[in-house]
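Example: DNA-binding LacI/PurR family transcriptional regulator.
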Amino acid sequence: MATTGTEPSSPRGPGRRRRGPGMMEVARAAGVSQKTVSRVVNGEPHVSADVRDRVLGVIRELDYRPNNAARALLMGRYRRIGVVSLGSALYGPSTQLIDLERAMHRVGYSFAVASTLEGQGGAGIAAAVESLLEQGVDGIVLSEPIDDGTPLRLSADVPVVSLGEGVHLADAPSTVVRADGVAAARIATQHLLGLGHRTVWHIPGPQDWWTARDRLRGWREALADAGAPEPPLPADGDWTPASGYAAGRSLAQLPDLTAVFAANDDMALGALRAFAEAGRAVPAAVSVVGFDDIPAAPYLSPPLTTVRQDFAAVASRAVDVLVAMIEGHSHPAEPVDLAVELTVRSSTAPPAF
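Written out as structure tokens, the predicted fold is:
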């Protein structure tokens, strides 16, 4: 697990870490009051240039951290939000993390992140949460896409907003803000069925990701609602073009295949390559829909029809809800599911019967 943050100490647990210099030590070394140090730290007026320079010099000399526990005690809050996120360069998690940081800056909060690794499960998430609490945060966003299928129970005394599955906290409020992946997969599948395809094959993502499970569920629901047969699934993909290519090579051998919904755009990209190599033209022979609307999607050959989820909107809503919780306001009792939209391009068309 990797963490980033600016504070080595916290009032949450005596003895957990070596205590750094406090505001009293800075004030004593600079020959000023603690109130003056506070004014310098917080950028307040009514401090002469000489005094400000002297205090800042002592802060640098003692390696005093302005945003540590002393500031939290003075201001009542850390003004910092922690994020638990999978340590991954995949488009979804990395984009969501960037948008969360921007949303926090918009509302005047700083940002700390604790990263998990695939395979750590609930224990890795719990360790990441504990790391953030030790740094000092007012609330936590759980932007963790992987679980082991069991309810997640955490120990935290600050509010938590999850961007996926619900979380159980004993001592603080929690809620869920997310893009509606089930509805999104239904929309993608219904689009293909609406074009006249008898059924739709699916390239699934890894089923320890709740997003992959949501998309699989939405695909199944759309087929059932339409009375369309449910084709067998290829092996689970891993979100990469290589896994989409492997699934596409297998699917390309099916003579009755006319439509495919891939659980993300990168796997759809791999499938497009496999269909081209097999002589199955897209969309003349096979229609393909992806998910995410990655920046490359409009420039593929052909341009990819895909479901667009607004990562920035999810991040903004999640941070607004969390800040309201931090400030003691009410929070949504039910999950907040944000709408997604289908972007239709040239990779889908009616089947050629």
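The domain at 181-309 is CATH 3.40.50.2300 (Rossmann fold).
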